[in-house]
Amino acid sequence: MRYKSLLVALPFIFGVASANAEGVVHHKLNGMPISESVEVSAGNNLVFLSGKVPAKKSADAPEGVLASYGNTEEQTISVLEQIKTHLNELGLDMKDVVKMQVFLVGGEETKGEMDFKGFMDGYSKYFDASKTEQLPARSTFQIAKLANPAWRVEIEVIAVRPAK
């Protein structure tokens, strides 16, 4: 039992991990604003959010037109705002996100390549490695397309609600 306590304490002693909620440990990936891994102990509740896509900038903006949704950075902010709002409705916050999957589309405006910089510019407004160690583990994929030809971003997340 003594050794188990030491093993649990080691990441904290060496500064490679941080805990935000009881039973959640983030292992930061150096040089990136993400966690290399996140541990969630038994007894916590996982909350799976369906993928969110960008909202139009205005209700009367035409469907299927890139300008109606904005560039990748603007779309990322739109999606993350929706995620933040939904989490808040559930009594959670962005710091409770432990896993994120990002789907990016490369459009004609980027010669078919995903705009990773634009995504990171939007993402960093919500997950800033200089301000917190509580960053999600994340995967980012370039995909061929989403349901709307103007969408460049879809994000799904898993959050954790600490056991009471």
Helix-strand layout with pairing:
Elements: H1 2-13, E1 17-19, E2 24-28, E3 35-40, E4 45-52, H2 66-69, H3 72-89, E5 97-105, H4 116-123, E6 137-143, E7 153-161
Parallel strand pairs: 5-6
Antiparallel strand pairs: 1-2, 2-3, 4-7, 5-7
Helix pairs in contact: 3-4
Short description, anyone?
The protein is an alpha+beta fold.
Low-confidence stretches: 1-20
Span from first to last CA?
A: 25 Å
Question: How many DSSP-defined strands?
Answer: 7
Percentage of β-strand residues = 25-35%
- Percent range for helical residues? 25-40%
How many domains would you count in the coordinates? 1
Count of DSSP H/I helices? 4
What is the alpha-carbon Rg in Å? 18 Å
- What is the correct CATH architecture? 2-Layer Sandwich
* CATH C-level name: Alpha Beta
Write the element-wise H/E pattern from the N-terminal end onward: HEEEEHHEHEE
Q: What is the approximate shape?
A: globular
CATH superfamily, by name, is RutC-like
Would you tell me the structural class of the helices and strands?
Answer: alpha+beta
Mean pLDDT figure:
87
